[in-house]
Amino acid sequence: MESRHVSRVISASPQAVYGFASNVDNLPIWASGLAHSEVTREGDTLRVDSPMGRVSVRFVAPNEFGILDHDVTLPSGATVTNPLRVIAHPDGAEIIFTLRPLDLSDDEFDRDTATVGEDLDHLRALVEDRNRASRS
User: Which of 62, 65, 86, 123 suits a disulfide with 18, CB 3.0-4.6 Å?
Assistant: First the structure.
């Protein structure tokens, strides 16, 4: 199984990117591949309507390392671990999402990869807009 790493460089500090991306209330506005609706909290577990149906999501605890790994439990009961990192970059920050094909067809894996790329583009635009606004 070969992983794919989808990344985007964002013109903002790693802390700003991590702060925005780790706020689960922001998921529906940038992570369309995961959340189509408001997030419901049940302890440490999040419930969201996704393109895959109603799923449960558990993120790692907040940390200073930019780690946003999360497990998504699908309606089938299968759990998928999604590594997600925010790291320093000479131009600000880089966010990196690792995808694994698991039991997806090549076409499904390509679609998932494209969706993650679009979501990261949206995240970049939102964070950069906020960053510009805060400097004004």
Answer: 86
Radius of gyration, CA atoms only, the chain: 15
Domains of the chain: 4-135 (3.30.530.20)
The backbone torsions φ and ψ at residue 23, rounded to the nearest 5 degrees and listed phi first, read -80, 105
Which residue from 119, 135, 128 is spatially nearest to 34, judged by alpha carbons?
A: 119
Backbone dihedral angles phi then psi of residue 109, each to the nearest 5 degrees: -65, -40
Q: Which residues pair with 80 in a beta bridge?
A: 72
| 20/4 Cα distance (integer angstroms) | 24
Instruction: Evaluate whether 20 touches 130 at the Cβ level (below 8 Å).
Output: yes
